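Q: Structure for this?
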Amino acid sequence: MPHPTHDSCAHCGHHHELRVEDLRVSYRHVDALHDVSFATSCGACVALIGPNGAGKSTLLKAIAGLLPVSGGRIFWRGTKVAKWSREIAYLPQRENVDWQFPITVEGVVRMGRFPQAGWWRPFSKMDENATAKAIELMELRDLATRQISELSGGQQQRVFLARALAQEAHVLLLDEPFTGLDRNSKSALASTLRHLTEEGRLVIASHHDMDTVRDIYDEVLLLRRKTIAFGTVEQVFHPEKLEETFGKEVA
Amino acid sequence: MIEWLTEPLQHPFNQRAILAALLIGFTNGYASAFVVLKKSALKVGSLSHALLPGIAVAILVAGLHDWSAFLGSLFAALLIGLGSLAVSRGSRIDQDSALAILYTAAFSGGIILLRRLEVTQEMDEWLFGNIMGLRDGDLWTNFWISFGALGVLTALHRPLLMTLFDAEVAATLGVPVRFLNYLLLAVLIIVLISSLQAVGCMLALGLLVTPAATVYLLTDSTNAMFWGGSLLGGVASAFAVLAGWWLNIEQGPAIVLVLGACFLLAFLFSPKYGLLGPSRARRR
C-alpha cells in the first residue's frame, strides 16, 4: 500500500501502523532485547519507559535500522523496515553529539535533505524550501546562521526536530529528549511534540520523569529487556505495572 | 639582500622542491580538516609510522622504484590498520593498544631492515624527509596522488561531513558510514605517503594535522577550515623550504616547525578562540 506522493500523514485519511513483532537484538550473543512486541500508529505520542539498561536506546536504534536485528520483525506501513528509511527519523541523546563541530543550525537541518539531494547534487530550491520551513516551524529563524556551539539545550533539541522535519519523516524516534532541559524548555518541547503528533506524525521517546508522562504522552511502552506492558496511559501507567518494570524501589 | 632572498629560486632542484611543498602542503592541509574533525590524529600517526617497514619490505622484494615504495607503504599501513582491528575484535585488547603494539613492532623491524639494505638514501631521509632530493618523476607521482585524493574528498564532502558529525544519524539518512570511514582512512594513508619525501614518516603527522587545526582556532566555517587549511599548508610549506635554504636548516623539520609556529600564534592571538584574543580578554 504505497503512498508515493503524500508528504505527511496529516494529508492522508487513514492511519499508518508501526508494528514490532517478537523483536530480538543481541550484542555478542547476549540478548539486549527479546520478545518485544507492540503496534502503534500515526498520531500517537508513545513513551518508552524502563530502568537504565532496559534497552530503550537499543529499541529506538533497532527501529531506526541502526542495529542488526537477530530475530522478529519491524513493519512500517505494512512493509518490513530494512536498513534505513527516509520516513523514520532518529534523534540521538544530545550529549552524544559533538556540539563544538563547526557547523551552523541551518547546516544541521539541511542534512535532513540528504535522502532527497543525494551525494553530489547541489541542494535544490525544494530542499532549501523544506529546510527553511522546518527552521521556521521550530522557531529557529533567528538562530539559523549561528554555530551550534552557541545553542541552549532546548534549542539543540529543536534543531534535531527541524532536521527530522526537513527529512519529511513520519516517525520520530527521540532518545531522552527531555533530559537536561530547564522547565520552560520542557513545556515548550512537550507542546511541540503534541503539535507534531496532531499533524499525524508518530512520536516515540524514551522518558525518565514519571510525573510528566500523563501530560505528554498518549501511549506507554514499559520495557525491561522485553515488553512488560503496552497500551494507552490509562491502561498501562499504574503503580503495579511500574513496580514490575523497575522493581520494588520506585513504586 | 634581494639576491640572497631570490637565490634559491634560481636552482632547478629548489624550484622543484618549492613546487612540491606547495602541492603536498595544499593536499595535506585539505585532508587535515578531516583528521581534526574526526579527532583521529593519533591513529593517523600510528599509520604514518607503519609506512616505513612497508617501504623496507618493498625495496627488499622489488628494489626502489617510483611506485614500489608507494605500494609497499600503502600495503603496510592497510595491513597494520586492519590487523589492529582483527586483534581488537578477536581478543580483549582495545584497538588503540593493538595499533600501538603492531606499529611499533613493525617500525622496529623496518629500521633494522632498512639499515641493511643497499640504498643510497640515508636513514634520516626516510624519517624526516628530503624534499631537495625530489626528481621530476616524484613530482608527477605527488601530483597524481594529490589530484586523486582531493578529487575523492571533495566529491564525497557532504556524506563525509555528515558521518564525522554524527555517524548514527548519518546512517539513518542513508549514508554508508562504514564504507566512508574506510575510504577516508585509505585516502588519508595515501596523502601521508605523498608527504613522505617532504617530511618523512616521523613528521608526516604534523603536516596532516596542524594546518586545519590552526584554521579551526580562527574560524567557525567548515569551508574555511578546508580551503584555509589547504592554503596555510601550501604556503607555509613553500615558505619553510625557502627559509631552510636561507638559514641552512633541514627543510622537513622546517615545514613542521613553521606550521607549529602558526598554530601557536593562532592559539594565543586568535580573535575569537585565542588565549589572549580580544573576546577572551573581554570575558575575563
